[in-house]
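User: Please run a holo structure prediction.
Assistant: Happy to. Please share the sequence and the ligand.
User: Here you go; the ligand is CU-O-CU linkage.
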Amino acid sequence: MTPPRPPNRPTRRTVLRSLSAGTLAALAGCGANAPSEADSESGSEPPSATTGASTADLRPDETVELPANTGTNTVAGDTSWDTWRYDGQIPGPELRVREGDVFRARVSNQLPESTTIHWHGVPVRNAMDGVPEVTQQPISTGETFEYSFRAEPAGTYFYHSHVGLQLDRGLAGPLIIEEADPHVEYDRDITLVLDDFLPGPPQMPDASGGGGSGGMGSGSGGMGGGMMGDTRPPYEGLLINGRLPSDPPSFSVEDGERIRMRFINASSATTFHVALAGHEMQVSHADGRPVEPVGVDSFVFGAGERYDAIVEANSPGAWEVRAAALDGDEPPAKAVLRYGNSDDAPTPVESTGQQLRYSDLRALSPVDGIDSGPDRTFDLTLSAGGGRSYRWTIDGQTYPDADPLRISAGDHVRVRMTNHSPVVHPMHLHGHFFQVGDAVKDTVLVPGHMGEVTFDFIADNPGQWLFHCHNLYHLHAGMARAFVYE
Ligand code: C2O
Ligand code: CU
């Protein structure tokens, strides 16, 4: 069980242990629960809902320069494409920060358009949330904006542009907040960023469902059809860490290691089914939050969701990671786990086996304060807009022409969603984690054809918080609202 360790490699191995009440309270304090100590510590922060003019009073423990610029990136041996990206990379550089540290990113905009960055999943102060016209003025071309926030809670997150359709050009990258005290044992971690590959500038589809967009109409993913189906952008492939399956990224592992695989769905319009050949995945975190480890062969996740899984490397050879689109017919994205110097062709995924269900997820630190009835309940219908333009609605309204969802500080808020459309919607709430079943998440899939999902959260982070479908095209066709409170 304890493999010999090369002398210089830092170990991340910790022991699985029972959580004391104190640990639970500490975890809860940095979750979506009561205002945490960190908040009072930094009590001199500027009020939220300003444009983030000054964050100088938060002394950063680490600062990164994060230029957003245009250029050419390679997606496979000889295929390259004109992109917009962070610091020259697709996906953007992996940002790593220790839990509890104050993180600062200086974003210089070298793009031909205004931009912002959203720190997806991190419950930052509202002014740092990166939603244009809601929490800040967009960063104009040639300008620099400093984001800073306390990095908590630990978890697997990502950062991305929140302006227009910029996300689908490649403006996304992983953000890892490293746990001081993980509940699972592992030697090191690797990050897999999944994406859909659009070679040209993104465009909103027209209303006809397929015309003019590569002919990928409603039926392409078996998601249902007819007038209410969806139009998929003309993707030319699926990526893991910016590479097509013809030239997949390879991770070398050693026999006996335990690897923490961090999976991020940074796509704009793809629900992925992810499987790993030859190994069980012990899912340990959902959207960054720790869960009781659950062993599966595969999982499905939507745009904006993340899963971490511990994999015990006990089966030498080369093994494929496969990520297939549920809503598209592009060849699945691939990666390879390769033991030592094995030059075997990777063994493919044969079947997707036991698939993770939301009901398998048991959060170690559930959202506090939701045991009694909610103070506010919102029943929200998700549907296609109909009519002559491409529209997606929440309760018949298209954001930004939509009523704010007004709540009060401290409220226990319940949201019940019913999906009247035939396509799945990955619904994401900014600034808060929510409880959904026994899981704690920030993004949840609402299945098509009258799928229903209910979640609860505590209004503990005042401001204006976007709540929207993380399918980028649905978001920009109106499928969003803002929760508002002071
Ligand atoms: Cu990744 Cu508004 O979200
Ligand atoms: Cu949607």
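Residues 21-29 form the longest helix (9 residues).
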